[in-house]
Write a structure and sequence with these properties.
Layout (H helix, E strand, L loop, with lengths): L3 E11 L2 E9 L11 E9 L2 E7 L7 E4 L2 E4 L9
């Protein structure tokens, strides 16, 4: 099984801001995660990412708040 793109959308929040989400179902959990999703959810304002949830390989589920990175307890795609 290859990675399957389940969702990819970008929504304008205002003239200078958008939210973007992308979710893939993967055959095996991404290193550091215990589920079969690879995901990215970002809030971008004035071309700067202010907040992002993702599960980069090796880092597991986490969120970025500006320059800070903290753990995130992934509770499913619907919750994300």
């Amino acid at each position: 099984m290859k990675a399957i793109l389940l969702l990819r959308n970008r929504f304008a929040v205002s003239d200078n801001a958008f939210v973007e989400i992308a979710v893939w179902e993967v055959p095996n959990p991404v290193r550091g995660s215990n589920h079969r999703y690879k995901y990215r959810l970002a809030l971008v304002v004035d071309e700067r990412c202010l907040m992002r949830y993702d599960n980069e390989a090796g880092k597991g589920d986490h969120k970025h708040i500006s320059e800070r990175e903290v753990d995130y307890a992934f509770a499913g795609i619907e919750r994300l």
